[in-house]
Amino acid sequence: MSFEVFERLEAKVQQAIDTITLLQMEIEELKEKNNTLSQEVQNAGSHHEMLVRENEQLKQEQHVWQDRLRALLGKMEEV
């Protein structure tokens, strides 16, 4: 009888070891995925900053062109 108990205990220990091993593998996969996503977020942040700067530059250029156009329209009205 004690041999059966020992076999069941051994099976449960083996099942626990297998579960722990699978969970450790899953943790490693999730860590890798997390690192990849963190890098993607960092790259997206850098790209966002670049686009914000470009947008500001384009807005400034638009204002310059609007001012020039207003000046030309003002000169045309004087004529």
TrEMBL record:
Signal peptide: none annotated. Keywords: Cell cycle, Cell division, Coiled coil, Cytoplasm, Septation. Pfam families: ZapB (PF06005). InterPro entries: Cell_div_ZapB (IPR009252). Residues 6-61 form a coiled coil. The keyword Secreted does not apply. It comes from the Bacteria. One of its GO terms (cellular component) is cytoplasm. GO terms for biological process: division septum assembly; FtsZ-dependent cytokinesis. It is found in: Cytoplasm. Non-essential, abundant cell division factor that is required for proper Z-ring formation. It is recruited early to the divisome by direct interaction with FtsZ, stimulating Z-ring assembly and thereby promoting cell division earlier in the cell cycle. Its recruitment to the Z-ring requires functional FtsA or ZipA. Homodimer. The ends of the coiled-coil dimer bind to each other, forming polymers. Interacts with FtsZ. Belongs to the ZapB family. This is Cell division protein ZapB. It comes from Chimaeribacter californicus. The lineage of its organism: Bacteria, Pseudomonadati, Pseudomonadota, Gammaproteobacteria, Enterobacterales. The gene is zapB.
